[in-house]
Amino acid sequence: MQKFTRLTGVAAPLFRANVDTDAIIPSREMKKVSKEGLGEGMFADWRYSDVANRVENPEFILNWPCFRKAPILLAGPNFGCGSSREHAVWALQDYGIRCVIAPSFGAIFQGNCVRNGILPLVLPEPSVAALAQAGTPQLLTVDLAAQSVRVPDGTELPFTIAPADKEMLLEGLDAIGVTLKRLPAIRDFEGSYRARNPWLFF
Amino acid sequence: MGLSLVEKLWARHCVADLGDGTDLLYIDRVLLHERTGSMALKGLKEQGRAVRHPDRAFVCMDHIVDTLPGRSDTTIMPGGTAFIQETRAAAAEAGIRVFDIGDDRQGIVHVVSPEQGIALPGATLVCPDSHTCTQGGLGALAWGIGSTEAAHALATQTLVVKRPKTMRVRFDGALPPGVGAKDMILHLIAAHGAGGGAGYAIEFTGSAVSALSVEARMTLCNMAVEFAAWTGLVAPDAKTIDWVKGRPFAPKGDLWDEAVADWRGLVSDADAVFDKEIRIDCADIAPTITWGTSPQHAVPLTGHVPHPDHATDATAAQARRRALDYMGLKAGDALIGLPIDGAFIGSCTNSRLPDLRAAAAVLKGRKVAAGVRAICVPGSMQVKAAAEAEGLHVVFQAAGFEWRESGCSMCFFAGGEHFGKGERVVTSTNRNFENRQGPGTRSHLASPVTVAASAIAGHIADPRSFLGEG
User: Fold this and answer.
1) Domains, chain A, with CATH or none
2) Which end of chain B has less Cβ packing within 10 Å, N or C?
């Protein structure tokens, strides 16, 4: 997994409430059993005026030249709600998004971000709204270790993150590998658990 | 201080406290489907890792399979066949059971796993599918995860999970006629917002929940995720235990007796403290329907489309304006009487036998209005067979409904079948997002009886005027 430490880049404003994973990657854009190439289908229904022929909608924010390569997305509350499809995160990643800043996230989406090296950064709604409404492209610096976002006027906005998520992102950990180190403890647990709940085992 | 049911289930599955409010939880069942489960199996294989307990993992073919008669691995969805075949091959290689096309147990994973006794009270279940919370209706701790987490659960039989806050939602009093679990959950989400349950595991309680069938409790829990909850559940009771008894994968003999003795203790203590409580008087709930593009955009069926300016804040107001534009509606429009093009009964929310019975009671002796495409997709082949044994298929077909094979079908648009651009559809599904049921399709979420009544009327209609007649 790609590590996330510090990132400086343009933040693209997509400040809408309840943007769901169907909007981030429509189901029909998941064309094969693969994580590859999903960036092209990201926000397909909003990004293209003709989805089939990939004709871009010039009004969609990520199609503006100044935001086209933004690695940071400024999103509204409950971003990534809806389905569990990890393809939404793989699409953002494939497109080049490394950090999404929002007042809140869909829980499964938030977990999926962390497991794929994308920082789901929570800031209070007025802060995100203010950043999103600045009008001109803003260059933000996100420092995960310091848990702060530096905005162009020099202000530092602190943020909180679950320590386990922070560690996973900073270290780019292989979560399965980490848990498998605990296999003896899992086996011990399993033994006594099975004795207490034998009906759950085949 | 007493413990809530969620806290009790958490404690019994906790392998290790990892600090900072995060635990390593033991997972009893891993469920997969061909859309996202395929990626979990592929991920493991690429890493050279094995599935630890393949006997406790199950695959359902549901998302991409066709629901048309005579179906095969060929699907309308571009690339769909590869998802089906690669998942089947990966499951076989890992030694995981598959409820495949052609199996009389095939169906939607959240319908099949309770029906087969795979989902059990008190168990932990995960699936790379957000509606896994459905199984909470049996008193299981069940939640949706991503594909990477599913691979973790398969490889280790555990997951690293942050302890959720607890919420109790109490539905008291009797439900008015024509009002069911779907109306209850839409009412809750409309009142408290689509983000209202964020961070919480919700226990649904109260006299109205006790009175619900087990299937209706699953409907209630199914949409906990549309409330942004981590999961929802209902404590198991005698009704639950009766419902589970005799199901193929449920315990038998002495093990059954041991299980029942345990399940009887799966209740929140009287002095349990919840982080949040919501009380709803069921007398206040009417048949409910969505008008917009979020499940929170819901109003009583007899109501009107609200004005964007009356939203709680500027962000919500902006979302309402977008929704009105997408839905082709304006503030103040009445919901009843809006002409419809489609009617859909199916999905993990409302495709179980009681849902089909309720809809058939409305449809019996009546005809779907001209110009309305009406489709019924039973949630599983077992539901379909049971419905046919009662003759419900005859009622649906005589009314003019298509009667399908089981699967997720047109709950979402995967590139195959869909309702048309700008078409207005009343649907028993769980999501009215933009383009969910097809590019530009306008979905109104409602109960199966409201869908049936609307199909007959040719416009959004009040099911109460159809009940007890026909």
Assistant:
1) 6-171 (3.20.19.10)
2) N
Smallest CA–CA distance, residue A134 to chain B, in Å, is 16
Q: Which of B163, B191, B220 is the last residue of a domain?
A: B163
Task: Check B434 against A77: CB less than 8 A apart.
Answer: no
Cα–Cα–Cα angle for B160, B165, B169, nearest 5°? 130
Residue B130 confidence (pLDDT) above 90:
yes
CA distance B109 to A62: 36
- Are B78 and A31 a contacting pair at CB < 8 A? yes
- pTM score of the predicted model: 0.97
Q: Which of B35, B255, B315 sits opposite A199 (nearest CB)?
A: B255
pLDDT value of residue A136:
80
Q: What is the CATH number of the domain that holds B28?
A: 3.30.499.10
ipTM exceeds 0.90, yes or no:
yes
Asked if the Cβ–Cβ distance from A81 to B228 is below 8 Å, we say yes
> In this complex, do B414 and A27 lie within 8 Å of one another by their Cβ atoms?
yes
B153 and B11 in a common domain: yes
Read off the pLDDT of residues B52-81 as tens digits, 9 standing for 90 and up.
999 999 999 999 999 999 999 999 888 999
Output the six-digit token pair for A89. Answer: 């995160």
C-alpha to C-alpha distance for B436 and B418, rounded to whole angstroms: 9
Bridge partners of residue A156, in order along the sequence: A150
- Give the residue from A112, A51, A35, A128 showing the smallest Cα distance to A80: A112
User: Does residue B195 lie within any of the structural domains?
Assistant: no
Q: Which residues contact A48 (CB under 8 A, 6 or more apart)?
A: A54, A55, A56, A57
Who among A22, A32, A176 is closest to B152 (CB)? A176
Number of domains in chain B: 2
Establish if B159 belongs to a structural domain: yes
Q: Which amino acid, residue A138?
A: Q
In this structure, is residue B206 part of a structural domain?
no
Question: Cα–Cα distance between A67 and B416 in angstroms, integer?
Answer: 33
Looking at the domain assignment, is residue B250 inside a domain?
no
Q: Which residues of B touch A32 (CB under 8 A)?
A: 79, 82-83
Partner-chain contact A179 B147, CB within 8 Å: no
The Cα–Cα gap between A51 and B443 comes to 20
Whether B468 shows a pLDDT value over 90: the answer reads: no
Chain A to chain B Cβ contacts (< 8 Å): 186
For residue B340, pLDDT over 90 is answered with yes
Per-residue confidence in pLDDT tens, chain A, 202 aa: 889 999 999 999 999 999 999 999 999 999 999 999 999 999 999 999 999 999 999 999 999 999 999 999 999 999 999 999 999 999 999 999 999 999 999 999 999 999 999 999 999 999 999 999 876 889 999 999 999 999 999 999 999 999 989 999 999 999 999 999 999 999 999 999 999 999 999 9
- Which one-letter amino acid corresponds to residue A142? V
For residue A30, list chain B residues with Cβ-Cβ distance below 8 A.
35, 414
Query: What is the spatial distance between Cα B10 and Cα B128, in angstroms, rounded to a whole number?
Result: 20
CB contact under 8 A, B318 and A32: no
Token readout for A7 is: 């990132």
CA distance B341 to B441: 10
What range defines the domain where residue B350 resides?
Answer: 292-466
Question: Is there a contact between B165 and B273 (Cβ–Cβ < 8 Å)?
Answer: no
Number of Cα atoms under 13 Å in the Cβ half of residue A104: 15
